[in-house]
Amino acid sequence: MSSTPKSPEPVAGLPLLESIRFDLRGLVAAIAQQHDTGEVLMLAWMNREAVEETLATGRACYFSRSRNRLWRKGESSGQVQRLVDIRLDCDGDALLLLVDQTGVACHTGRRSCFYLAPRDGVLAELTQPEVSPEALYGA
């Protein structure tokens, strides 16, 4: 059996949506991973509408808990995620989005949000920003 990701079919979205165990807030954790390298890019949250839009458009859409609205990855920065495949974990309470990331995934300007690690008694930054947040968001 091939492990090559295949683009998800919108028609297949209904069985997926019915199988997701959304939490009491109507959210499910979603991990974005670069499809060809395996690099873990970020963790975000999705509600049913975000999952539906992601499946329909092929572009990652999340739910922003701080803004209490849908957040289309790259809408303000241009750093979009094209969906290659989507997978549900064994408990139905987490999604893995295999994506093709354009540019950086992190709002700090780094490729991945997972750049902090304990080193020599401190929390060290393992990577430096590739682009400034000001350049991404015009702030």
From TrEMBL:
SUPFAM superfamilies in the cross-refs: HisI-like
GO aspect biological process, one term: L-histidine biosynthetic process
Cofactor binding note: Binds 1 Mg(2+) ion per subunit.
Reaction(s) catalysed (UniProt annotation): 1-(5-phospho-beta-D-ribosyl)-ATP + H2O = 1-(5-phospho-beta-D-ribosyl)-5'-AMP + diphosphate + H(+); 1-(5-phospho-beta-D-ribosyl)-5'-AMP + H2O = 1-(5-phospho-beta-D-ribosyl)-5-[(5-phospho-beta-D-ribosylamino)methylideneamino]imidazole-4-carboxamide
Pfam families noted in UniProt: PRA-CH (PF01502)
Reported cofactor(s): Mg(2+); Zn(2+)
Chain sites annotated for binding Mg(2+): D89, D91, D93
Enzyme class name: hydrolase
GO annotation, cellular component aspect: cytoplasm
Main location: cytoplasm
InterPro entries reported in the protein's UniProt record: PRA-CH, PRib_AMP_CycHydrolase_dom, PRib_AMP_CycHydrolase_sf
Role noted for this protein: Catalyzes the hydrolysis of the adenine ring of phosphoribosyl-AMP.
Subunit comment: Homodimer.
Protein's name according to its UniProt entry: Phosphoribosyl-AMP cyclohydrolase
Gene coding for it: hisI
